[in-house]
Design goal:
The chain is of the alpha+beta class. It has helices at 60-66, 73-85; strands spanning 2-9, 15-23, 28-35, 40-43, 90-96.
Amino acid sequence: MSQHLCATRDSEDNNVQVILGYDRPLNFIFCTITAADGEIVYSNLPDLNVDTRQQDVNYYRPILEKAGVTLPEAMFEQVAEDQTLCVGNRVADHGSIGRETSV
């Protein structure tokens, strides 16, 4: 599976980690948003509107928007490309957006 990671902040200024990717064996696009304390803010697994027929990375745009999360456009583009090319075993870190880093 491909995994595209981004550390960012939500609309309430909380640190979150987003993983957006493509699962080659299931031919499935997935998304998770995890809070800094490990709590899952969103996962496609219990989403009743998503199943193994979920093929459009853009499905997650309004979900991310509702959570107040902005991602680099490259994440969406690269996941779509991973899907087109049936990419597996790829991890891409898209960095941190709006997060403080300790020195």
